[in-house]
Amino acid sequence: MNQTYYDGGVPIIPASSNVFMTIASIAASLLSFYSLLIWLRIVLTWIRIPGQLQENPLAALLGKIVDPYLTWFRGISSLKRSKLDLTPLVALAVLSVVQSMLRLYGSYGRLTIGMVFALVLQTLWSYLISPVFWFLIVLLGIRLFFCYKRSPRTITYITMLDSMIGGVLNWVQNLFYPKKAINDRQLIITSLIFFIVCYIGSSLLLRFMIGFFTNLGF
């Protein structure tokens, strides 16, 4: 069994642990590069040159490398809405957790359960919760703008926005104005303030929980 010796209060990590730390650091770097390839793949799927019939050769090459991994997550139907597919974010989040764990072990030679929980929370916030909050806040802000700039030309945009956030608006109305008729401007302002407050509160709670788990000794 490996032992850690001390010299003047400073831990001396055994040579065998140094080897594993080096391997972990190299693996973390490889996962970071792989995550970059996934981002490139995502961006290239958004870019379509007018008149181009075949897929971009670079995108096709990246697809052969990253699509087998992304396929593992495409079965999560709850993360797919019309043309919006959030499964690549989940795939990137999983890679981020593993990469961070390897990087921590590569730097300090140890990894506690508390560190793992802290990494999972941070990753969920960065890749899922925070983007969803910002997505809703931006859409509500645009929808509020159209409340003040309503015109025949903006009806199409309003309809499109309401199809995306209509469920959220109904939920907020049932929460704050049950069985009460209100105009859409008041409902959208209430929703916008509510989600901004929730975002700030969630970020503060996250900081507390990350600090708590990080300081656990196991």
General description of the model:
With 218 residues, this protein is mainly alpha-helical. The protein folds into 2 domains: 1-111, no CATH class; 118-218. The chain has 6 helices and 4 strands. The strands form 2 sheets. A two-stranded antiparallel ribbon has the order 1-2. Strands 3-4 form a two-stranded antiparallel sheet. Helix 1 (15-46) crosses helix 2 (57-70), helix 4 crosses helix 5 and helix 4 (113-148) runs antiparallel to helix 6. The chain starts with a strand and ends with a helix.
> What is the chain-wise order of helices and strands?
EEHHEEHHHH
Count of distinct strands: 4
What percent strand?
under 5%
Category from helices, strands and their pairing = mainly alpha
Alpha carbon gyration radius: 23 Å
Q: What is the straight-line distance between the termini?
A: 19 Å
Compute the number of helices. 6
Strand order within the widest beta sheet:
1-2
Overall mean pLDDT stands at: 80
Shape: flat
- Give the domain tally: 2
- pLDDT under 50 segments (min length 5)? 1-13
For the largest beta-sheet, the strand count, sense and barrel status come to: 2 strands, antiparallel
Helix % is: over 70%
